[in-house]
Amino acid sequence: TQVLTKALQRGVVLSTGSLLVYEAHGLTSGFAEVHASFKVEEVIEQADYLYGSGETEKLYRLLVQHKNSDDADLLWRLARASRDLAQLSSTSAEEKKKLAYEAFEYAKKALEKNESNSAAHKWYGICLSDVGDFEGIKTKIGNAFIIKDHFERAIELNPKDATTIHLIGIWCYSFAEMPWYQRKIAATLFATPPTSTFQEALRYFHMAEEADPNFYSKNLLYLGKTYLKLNNKKLALLWLSKAKDYPAHTEEDKQV
């Protein structure tokens, strides 16, 4: 019930016909090749159901069959599914890297198919950040401006997307707490390296909360962490307490 409620809160609406299609194709026990007559909308509805249910591997197996699609909404979901599969503790280090690059290619293709798709910009930024982890600090810092540009474009297209607003907050927080030696490297490599402040990060975390209150345990955590950085223990305690009491639906919630 909690999973379905969560899925519905994300805007997932499954018609009776979609559920029948879902059951008829045996998606819970294994995937047969998708019939050519399948509509993109039906695949997306099935994908959103699996995503809301936390069925990461089944979701990936469903969507990867459509990796040659020209539909941006399907492709960014495939990018997300590939990344989610990479994040699983059971995924090997070699497979994590492969999936990270795979996810980036799907996100890139989604953006090429529809530059006005907010989610495509969001997942392009997320996946670009992920591949930067495998390419060293110079690439990671160099990509930072591009990542932020895509997050900001995503918000322009969808101002109510609390998750993307949160991601810009994370971007600001990361550069605000960058160690001195990394700052030195950044200053050597770039004429104007990316910088930010904890005050700026805090503003985005609050904006995310205003857009969708209590939407994400990690946003509550970072509100608390940022207030700690700003030496406001009273407000830090308030937000950390909310994070601690947040219902743990996912592995990430438990980690938070």
TrEMBL record:
It is found in: Cytoplasm, Cytoskeleton. GO terms for molecular function: microtubule binding. GO terms for cellular component: mitochondrion; mitotic spindle pole; spindle microtubule. Pfam families: RMD1-3. SUPFAM superfamilies: TPR-like. Interacts with microtubules. This is Regulator of microtubule dynamics protein 1. It comes from Colius striatus (Speckled mousebird).
